[in-house]
């Protein structure tokens, strides 16, 4: 199975049609830049021109109300466990608190409670999709070296031990990292160049082959 992962579009989706073919497209949030539900819908329309199925979470710059839109289109991973191609996925939208008072933030204690109330403890997990990276994973380092990721997400990774974690949010931390036995992937902002991560995960293989690329 081949998965493409993109994140942090911020309304820039023209390169979506230049992405290579895949079995599944996953979007890690920030469809918009402080946009409305209607703005999210417009970006979703552009993304869903793609032929493959799409699953997604929202980012902290998207309105939380747009979760209903993802649910209506049967593509939401937010606090839901789903299966695709024999792989089990779970997602977390929004992000832990920032200094910027963005539209879709939550406290780590609140998210930990939500995770405890969800199906996040149910059985094995192959892929965690979270807009916010796990704290101290490397994918959460900002320019001054501070780790600003989510402790709730880090705790979930350490508890569920997924082989693969897909995240975004921290543009300057684009890269592939190792944390708690997982491969942590932050492709950076999608942008006009179309930055993405490609994940090849054949049946019977414990961990995927993962690399970053751009399509323009």
UniProtKB/TrEMBL annotation:
Protein name (Swiss-Prot/TrEMBL): Icc-related predicted phosphoesterase
Domain of life: Bacteria
Classification via Gene3D superfamilies: 3.60.21.10
Organism placement in taxonomy: Bacteria, Pseudomonadati, Lentisphaerota, Oligosphaeria, Oligosphaerales
Source organism per UniProt: Oligosphaera ethanolica
MF terms in GO: hydrolase activity
Domain Calcineurin-like phosphoesterase, first and last residues per copy: 1-172
Pfam families reported in the protein's UniProt record: Metallophos (PF00149)
């Amino acid at each position: 199975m081949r998965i493409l992962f993109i994140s942090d579009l911020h309304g820039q989706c023209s390169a979506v049609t230049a992405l290579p073919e895949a079995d599944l497209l996953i979007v890690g949030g920030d469809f918009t830049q402080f946009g409305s539900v209607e703005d999210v819908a417009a970006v979703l329309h552009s993304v869903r021109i793609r032929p493959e199925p799409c699953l997604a979470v929202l980012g902290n710059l998207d309105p939380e109300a747009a979760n209903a839109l993802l649910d209506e289109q049967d593509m939401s991973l937010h606090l839901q466990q789903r299966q695709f191609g024999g792989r089990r996925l779970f997602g977390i939208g929004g992000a832990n608190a920032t200094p910027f008072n963005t539209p879709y933030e939550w406290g780590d204690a609140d998210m930990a409670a939500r995770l405890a109330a969800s199906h996040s403890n149910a059985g094995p997990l192959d892929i965690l999709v979270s807009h916010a990276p796990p704290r101290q994973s490397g994918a959460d380092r900002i320019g001054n070296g501070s780790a600003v990721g989510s402790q709730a997400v880090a705790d979930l990774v350490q508890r569920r031990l997924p082989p693969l974690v897909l995240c975004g949010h921290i543009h300057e931390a684009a890269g592939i990292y190792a944390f708690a036995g997982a491969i942590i992937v932050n492709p950076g902002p999608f942008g006009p160049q179309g930055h993405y991560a490609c994940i090849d995960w054949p049946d019977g293989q414990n961990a995927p082959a993962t690399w970053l690329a751009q399509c323009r």
